[in-house]
Amino acid sequence: MKVSTEYTKKRILVTLDMTYIDSVLINYLVFLKEKFDIEHLVFFHNIWFNNAENGADILSKLDKPLVDILEDKIKGEVKEYFSESEYSIIVTESNNSAKEIKNIQKVENIDLTVFGKKTSVDDSGLIIERVLYNNSLSDILVVPENAFHQLENILVPVEFTKKSANTLIKSKALSEKIHASLYCLHVFSISNVYFPYLPIKDLKEQTLKKAKSEWEKHKKKYLESIEIPEIAFHFHANMSVSRSIYEYAIKEKTDIISIPEETSIMNTTLFQLLKMNMHLPILIMK
What we know:
Layout: E1 11-15, H1 21-33, E2 40-47, H2 52-60, H3 66-78, E3 87-93, H4 97-107, E4 112-117, H5 126-133, E5 139-144, E6 153-157, H6 162-178, E7 181-188, H7 200-222, E8 231-235, H8 241-251, E9 256-260, H9 265-275, E10 282-285
Parallel strand pairs: 1-2, 1-4, 2-3, 4-5, 6-7, 6-9, 7-8, 9-10
Antiparallel strand pairs: 5-10
Helix pairs in contact: 4-5, 8-9
């Protein structure tokens, strides 16, 4: 399996919503700048009104076009941290933000798209889900409003798929680049169909043995070219896979969770993680 052994993110798209979360993102990017070889930042906002009539009324009262007002506002917020040669600003007017984001990813050759996540707002992850469903052209980084400026420990939840292996290889490259520790976790469960007819203990041992065997096959097939850390196996009986991942991440003092974008159990787990109220950033890899 040929995957780049370097993790380089030179062109970054930063999605803004013109609320307090934007300052969180800008400050996190200042922190990331020390870790990544960032060449250019694209700050993006899409103008969209729930009510077109109200929108037209607001626009008619402005002294100059709203696009110009927002561009000036964004510039005022970022110029303290980045020189004019380091960034550009794109403001669009569309009823489909996900489509606009994908278009910018393509035109600007974006490596990484960054979203802020408000922990107090239930639907703050909706645009991220739409971008994922629309097949994002770049990796995605989701930064909660209470994220720490720290990247010392990376957790990679593992499923035995090609995309999961790809994420592990790239996460390994990232850990070496930023001098971070890498942790691997596989969460396994027992189908409810067996309860309460068979003892959990026996099934757990049998399932763990099978998971370990699958892991060895997975390593031989996809991961022979890299040195990877020991993997932890975690059985979840009374909690979801996403909650098991979160609990393990807290226990190991993880700073970021790295997970693949794929159409399997990991995709369900990813969306569950996006909905969780937690301080950990999520790095979603293509």
